[in-house]
Amino acid sequence: MRTPIFALLILLFLATTTSGTAAERVELRGSVAVAYDGATYTWDPQNFPGFSYDADENIGNERLTLTITDSFLEEPMGVVYETTAQLAEFDLEDWGSYHKISFLGEEHFAGYADESYDERPYLYDKSKDDNLMAGEQLSKILIDEEHERTITKDSPLQLAEGYELAIKGIDAYGSVWLNLTRDGEVVDSNLIAPVKDGATMADKTYTYAKDIGITQGIVVIAVHFKGPLFHGTEGGLQDAAVVDGIWQISDSPVSIGEGSIFGKMRVSSVDPESMRIVMDNQDNQITLSENRDISLMGDFGIKTADQDEISAEEPLRYYVYREITEAGTYEIRGVVSVVVDGEMVEWNPTNFAGFYYDIDEDLGTESLVLNIYDSALEEPNGAVYTTYGQRKDFENEVWGSYWVIGFLGEEHFASYVEGTAFDAYLYEDSANPNLMAAEMISQVLIDDDEERTVTSGTSLQLAEGYELMLKSIDTSTDKVSLELRKNGQIVDTNTVEPLKEGATVQEKTYTYKERLNGAGEIVVIAVHFKNAFYNIDQMMATVDGVWQISDEPVSIQEETTIGKMAIQAVDAEAKTIMMDNKDNKINLYRNADIPLMGTIRIKTADQDDVTPEEPLRFYIYKEATVEAPQLPAPSQEIGMI
Fold first, then answer.
1. How far, in Å, CA of 176 to CA of 104, rounded?
2. Could you give the C-alpha distances from 149 to 220, 222, 231, 240, in angstroms and in order?
3. Segment 298-309, tens digit of pLDDT
4. In this structure, how many other beta carbons lie within 10 angstroms of the beta carbon of residue 306?
5. Is the pLDDT assigned to residue 639 strictly greater than 50?
């Protein structure tokens, strides 16, 4: 099945974990813009992840344009969304073509293409009405594939939205009787003859048509059968047939009538002939101010940076985003390029979401440069990756700053910034404050300044199995005793003194240090206590700062190989890392999926024609997985016998 590709061109935010792992939701965002009077910015599938794009057929043309007046998106033209259907071939090309339209980031069906586009438009011919947009509707594309599979009476073909297609029987002449069920109820039965002499498309294809809104008799399911057929036996073998093409659209359409509302957006025009849809923000002026999360339309929104300074020289940064909560795996891809001899292509945080970027502080330096020679990335300089550290303040600013470095798309810790116990306590408390000097970096797991309460009956949950517990408060010294556990085992005990008059940062901060891979001790966990309380019944403390880095560091020793890349240079003082593809020539050919480094890969299009006029398209990408929500275990009731 050809799955919609969601292009992500700056950053991926995961709700509960970091990119490359499973999460409950994923935030896909487009390139960052700045808000100043008169500015106009447009997002399309090249620079916004939420818009769908099919690299194989180069299909996807959604556009979102924001025009700023002062600090507002004035109605009705401050926000304009446009999309137009494009001609697409079915994966099973013998069925002809159809009009595909991207709408709010999803691939939708607009209508079947007639004989002016294809000599054999079978599904067009089988539909009474062929243009959904004429009825001001769209339908989500659920399945479009040509993979072979075998179905039987007891192993039906599983379709979407509760449909199943099963073999009821095969007669001696090769006719196949089919039953279509939905949620267990038979909704259609029909006969096909895929192996008879001179079998036509009609003989080989099962179709199910139904009314959708005011659109009558449009094909919503098509299944193509090929030979041979297998007859059941008395010994238990079942009748079986081979399927090699499936098409299904949703029978729950999306209404796109003029005036339809999607969040703050209104459908302003629909043209069923040109198959174009336009929306605007009529009656909804939108204010762009610091640290806002603005719902726009459907799963789409606008976020503004929580930046320290906003001025003419440092205007407010913002981006559009789409939040995905539907379970599945999504490609986070960079801008699409083409394979042309002599071309140099660069991806960085402005055009590849897989790289680390912090919009609030405008941090992120990763770069991947591909130098194309003929149709290959020659070694050692065909692929060159560089990154360097930047200074970043802790969320709890009393701890000072640290050096952050993006590496393979993740936020990593390089070093604590030098200072004194008063303005850089974590630096002072570490015997080895610079991990890069030991040829290591460590993933940043937690950095926040949110207030939370820890009691004698609860614990502060940290990452990697750690938890910090409040054990006691000494009423004579006001010392708070703490216990740190990992996976249930005690690994450290210590005290803090947040109740002490004039308590210093050191006295308010619990730290846990480790020797990572044999290097000198470095703080891996820090927790700042604002205060503590106790009475006869309970103890409690308020935490207002948590910091944690992984105790499983990443080796960045020179000559370390990561996929097809090798680390060639590390500078612990300048905090730079460089990798290249030494000893690994990479060929770029059609329909390839090439692992490059870590979770970053290169994918080339499965396009029909590769010519000087239509060179091979390709892009780099990472994957993000949204987990299906886990239902709570059913409670077990115990009754008396």
1. 40
2. 20, 15, 16, 10
3. 999 999 999 989
4. 12
5. no
- Cα distances (Å, whole numbers) of residue 76 to 267, 286, 373: 11, 10, 49
Question: Concatenated DSSP letters for 301-339?
Answer: EEEE---S--SSSSPEEEEEEEEE-SSEEEEEE---EE-
Query: Burial letters for 287-298: b for 16+ Cβ neighbours within 10 Å, e otherwise?
Result: ebebebebebbb
307 alpha-carbon distance from chain centroid: 25
DSSP E strand boundaries for 584-634:
586-587, 593-597, 600-604, 617-626
Three-state DSSP at 508 gives helix
Whether the pLDDT of residue 465 is over 80: the answer is yes
- Residue 206: how many other CB atoms lie within 10 Å: 21
Residue 4: per-residue pLDDT? 36
CA distance 251 to 208: 11
- Lookup: tokens for 94: 């013998």
**Alpha-helix residue ranges (DSSP H) falling in 178-255:** 201-204
pTM over 0.85: yes
The per-residue pLDDT for 632 is 56
Q: At CB < 8 A and 24+ separation, what contacts does 342-346 make?
A: 342/372, 342/373, 343/371, 343/372, 344/369, 344/370, 344/371, 344/372, 345/369, 345/370, 345/372, 346/370
pLDDT of residue 331: 87
pLDDT number for residue 49: 79
- Residue with tokens 């440069």, as numbered in its chain: 369
Q: How far apart, in whole angstroms, are the C-alpha atoms of residue 93 and residue 155? A: 26
Can 76-284 and 390-554 be said to share one CATH topology? yes
**DSSP for residue 286:** E
* Residue 172: CB atoms within 10 Å: 6
Q: Is the pLDDT of residue 640 over 50?
A: no
Q: Which residues contact 490 (CB under 8 A, 6 or more apart)?
A: 483, 484
Mean pLDDT value of segment 16-45: 80
Burial of 445 (0-12, 13-18, 19+ CB in 10 A): buried
pLDDT one-digit tens code per residue, 272-313? 999 999 999 999 999 999 999 999 999 999 999 999 899 999
213's tokens:
């809104």
Share of the chain above pLDDT 90, in %: 79
Nearest of 629, 620, 610, 628 to residue 5 by alpha carbon: 620
The domain ranges of the chain are: 1-74+287-343+588-629, 76-284, 390-554
In the chain, % helix, strand, coil (3-state, to 5) comes to: 5, 50, 45
Decide: 366 and 350 in contact? Cβ < 8 Å. no
> In the CATH hierarchy, which fold is given to the domain comprising 390-554?
Tick-borne Encephalitis virus Glycoprotein; domain 1 (2.60.98)
Is the domain 76-284 a CATH 2.60.98.40 member? yes
Within 13 Å of residue 289, how many CA atoms lie on the same side as its CB?
3
